[in-house]
Structure formats: C-alpha cells, structure tokens
Amino acid sequence: MYTEFDVAPLTPAIGAEILGINIATASDTAIDEIRSALLTHQVIFFRDQNITRQDHIAFARRFGDLEIHPATPSDQEDPEVLHIAYGSKSRGRENMWHSDVSWRPEPSLGSILRAIELPPLGGDTLFANMVKAYEMMPDDLRDKVEGRNAIHDFTRVFNSKRRGTAVADTPIDELRARYPLMSHPIIRTHPETRQKLVYVNGAFTSHIEGMDETESTETLNQLYALAQNPEIQCRFRWKPGSIAFWDNRACQHFAASDYFPHVRAMERVTIAGDRPFYA
User: Fold this and answer.
1) Which of 27, 191, 220, 225 maximizes the CB count within 10 A of its CB?
2) What are the pLDDT digits (tens) for 101-142?
3) Model confidence, pTM
4) Catalytic residue among 41, 190, 249, 253
5) Domains of the chain, first to last
6) 203/254 Cα distance (integer angstroms)
7) Among the options 100, 184, 188, 207, which is catalytic?
8) Is 100 a known active-site residue?
9) Active site residue 268
C-alpha cells in the first residue's frame, strides 16, 4: 500500500509510526500516502525530523489551508504557529480529552505538533479513536444522542483566566461576539472515510441543545468517558525530532501534564477543515 515509507502501527485501534522519510523533502506521492495513512490510523508519528519552523509550515500547507489561532499574538512572526510551552511557573493545561478548535464553524482537519524542548521524563500525548468509541457505545446512549447537536464554546478554555495568551485580557462578552457559540452534531460523519464518530469533548462542549441541564450534563459525562477506554487509545512518548500529525475529525487527544516543574515546549500548525455534518 505504501511505496515511499514503511508504517508501523502502535496499537490495533489507533496510531502508527511512519518510518524512512524526511517530511521536508517528501514527494507528492509521499504526501498522498501520508494522507492515506492518516485516514487509516487517525494519528501518525515521525521520528528524527531535523526540520525548521518553515519546513513545518510548508509540510502542513501541503494538506490544505492553515489556521491562525486566536491565542497567537498578532505581531508574531509566522502566525500559523501556535506555541505551547510550560515550565516551573506554569502547569500544562491540555490534560483533558479534546479535539482542537471544535468551537470553530469549520473545525480543523488536523494538527501537526513538533517537539521543541522536552522534559527528561513525562509529557506523553495520548490519542483515542472516536470511531471506535461510537461503535462501542451502549445502544441506549447512541439512540439518545444520534441526530442531536451540542454547543461548543471557545470561552470554556480561552478566557480571562488563561494568562499568557493573546485573549487573556479580553472580556468574555467580547470573546463571545468574536467567537459565537457553535452547534455541531454529537455524532458526526467523517467527510472522507464516511465513518460515524463521537464529536463532543470535555474542553469545549458546554451542553446538548434541547435537553435540560441535568440530563445534558449526565449525558455529556457518559460521552466524555468513552475516550477513556485504553482499548481505543495509543500513547506517544516524545523524543527530540518527533512530530505527531492527527486527524481532529476522527480522534481526541490528551497531553499528560506530569512533568512539572520541567519545561515542555511544542509548536503546532493546524490545517483548516470543514463544517461537521451527520448523514
């Protein structure tokens, strides 16, 4: 199936390492095969990639238009790059299961994360297959939520309490005006594989439309818990030169914040996606 590199799956459910390729010099055929591997494994990993920030951006752009995250300072060089760094004065905050930028009208296709500085131990990233989560969910829960929508809220994560970002001093009403509450299907159809999957997450999803608060909270907690099944997960241990590329439409991820007070610095470039739908 692959002519430009080898593929080594991490688990039966999700994740694979792509071996024997330099992404900075990948051919058009290799890019097509990387996209195929991404669709098959949901998250793919590259080791020993001695690339520049410009290489990182150029590689991501070969898969589509790039996003600029609101938390990126407006005067930052290379605004397509989101810096994610923690150390002795701050703890990691991405330690919950989530899908990136699900609060957008058209959430991202995928994210490409590059290791810049790593702690001596810890800071792994876990990934969960949300297609498998849909397939394994109880029938009564599936019947309850299929065809319904949930609300995704930018301000649940990015607000006045999120210090050190470009939106930290912006009043919540102004943020809501810039980034309105967004309604997406709880069960979405992947636009390329046509698989159904669970598309709510504990970071950005606030409530289920048309459901009272108590029932909505209980139902969402059941849905969030689906990602916690080890049988649908993989875990990636970062090393210098490592890169992860995941499909935000198909999986969720969890950045383990177990390395405090050591430094973990990463750079992310995100590929624009399309409007979620259910069919």
Assistant:
1) 220
2) 999 999 999 999 999 999 999 999 999 999 999 999 999 999
3) 0.94
4) 253
5) 6-271 (3.60.130.10)
6) 11
7) 100
8) yes
9) yes
